[in-house]
Amino acid sequence: MKRTSRPVLIAASTALAFTVALTGCSDKGGPTGGSETTATAGSSNVDASALLASAAEASKKVTSTHFTVDVTGKVPNMPLSKVDGDLQVKPVTQAEGTATVDIGGKSEGKFTFIDGTMYAALMGDKYVDYGDGKSIYDVASLFDEKKGIPTILTKISGAKAAGSETINGQETTKITGTVPATEIAAVSGSRVDPDKSVPVPTTVWIQSSGDKQLVRIEVKPSADGTITLTFSQWGKKVTVTKPKVTPVEPTDNPGTGESIPR
């Protein structure tokens, strides 16, 4: 078997993939107070299409944010179950935080994305170079104007307002619809053959006032799997330091702190 020195984690790009880990047009942060969510009915007078268009434009101006990713059920090619981090989109993409992965058992570790490279200590305390990071979570694609959230928001079909909810202190309008599977790779982590693309149930929660930032997006890429991304603290300062990387020798049977060779 061919072995190289560049380690790689099993599957899943995102960026949400996740994919790692963003700010609003006026760079104003919102409350973070826990994960409280309350819902109310209504929103019958909301123009869902117009609100989605506003959110898409706002997402193009995001510079930094705090974000979380939660994966429930079974999602193909997604070893992640949770991400909690800070992401800077502009002037350059960088991020850091923690991630929970399931590779022969769940483990939580730290990640840092800087200078176009993902470094992570997922199975021990040794940071490993994971290249562009797509094998963990494609944070660089999350707010990419061509394939990330700005585009996803414009691809939602059958959009309908479904009430309002308060998420972490943010008053939001809930909108439901579907997005072609080919368009949600930045969130789902799965690249789909255009000929096999199917509508994916998608729900978004957008600020009811102010910048109209996307507060949460939930996609259901499989029958029993859901990926949820939540954003807050737009415009927060994100300081990332390149970690010291410990060279890892290729191995066919990785142990704690080691990585699977590419």
TrEMBL record:
<comment type="similarity">
    <text>Belongs to the LppX/LprAFG lipoprotein family.</text>
</comment>
<dbReference type="GO" id="GO:0030313">
    <property type="term" value="C:cell envelope"/>
</dbReference>
<dbReference type="Pfam" id="PF07161">
    <property type="entry name" value="LppX_LprAFG"/>
</dbReference>
<keyword id="KW-0449">Lipoprotein</keyword>
<feature type="signal peptide">
    <location>
        <begin position="1"/>
        <end position="17"/>
    </location>
</feature>
<dbReference type="InterPro" id="IPR029046">
    <property type="entry name" value="LolA/LolB/LppX"/>
</dbReference>
<keyword id="KW-0564">Palmitate</keyword>
<dbReference type="InterPro" id="IPR009830">
    <property type="entry name" value="LppX/LprAFG"/>
</dbReference>
<keyword id="KW-0732">Signal</keyword>
<keyword id="KW-0472">Membrane</keyword>
<protein>
    <submittedName>
        <fullName>LppX_LprAFG lipoprotein</fullName>
    </submittedName>
</protein>
<feature type="region of interest" description="Disordered">
    <location>
        <begin position="242"/>
        <end position="262"/>
    </location>
</feature>
<keyword id="KW-1003">Cell membrane</keyword>
<feature type="compositionally biased region" description="Low complexity">
    <location>
        <begin position="242"/>
        <end position="251"/>
    </location>
</feature>
